[in-house]
Amino acid sequence: MKRNNFLWFSIPMLSVLILLIGGCGAEKTQEQEIIGEWSAHWETKFDENMPSITEANLKMNGVINFRPDGKVDIWAYGYQGCIFSDDTMRNTLNWKIDNSVLRFIDSGDDHGLPYTITKFGSNELELTLLEDISLTLQRNN
Known about the structure:
By secondary structure, this protein is α+β, with helices and mostly antiparallel strands. The chain contains two helices and eight strands.
C-alpha cells in the first residue's frame, strides 16, 4: 500500500520537474535570438550646417547576417551622394552583446563600434550609434 502512495506522489512531481527544466531551457538568450539575416536601414539626423546634403542622402539600406560563430557579414548599399558611402560595401567582423550594447568588432580592435540597443525584439531591433546614427534591423524570413 505504501508503494502506491509513493507512485501517486512521485509521478506528478516528476512531471512538474520535467516541465520546469524544459521551460528554463526553452528561453533564448539575446545572442541566440539575433542569429540570422536581417534587413538593415541606417539613418542619421539632418544638419542645417551642411546645406548641400539633402534628407535623401542621410539614409542607406543593407543586409546584416549574424552567424553563430561570432562573425557578422555586413552589406551596405551606398549610392552617389550618400553620407555613409557612395558605393556598396561588404565586410565581415566579429559581434557580441554586452548588456544593452551590440558591438561590431574588427580584428585587433578591443572595443568595436558600440551600438546601443534601444529596442530588442525577435523580428526587429533598433540601435543607436553616437546618438545621431540609427540602425533599424528587420528579420528576413
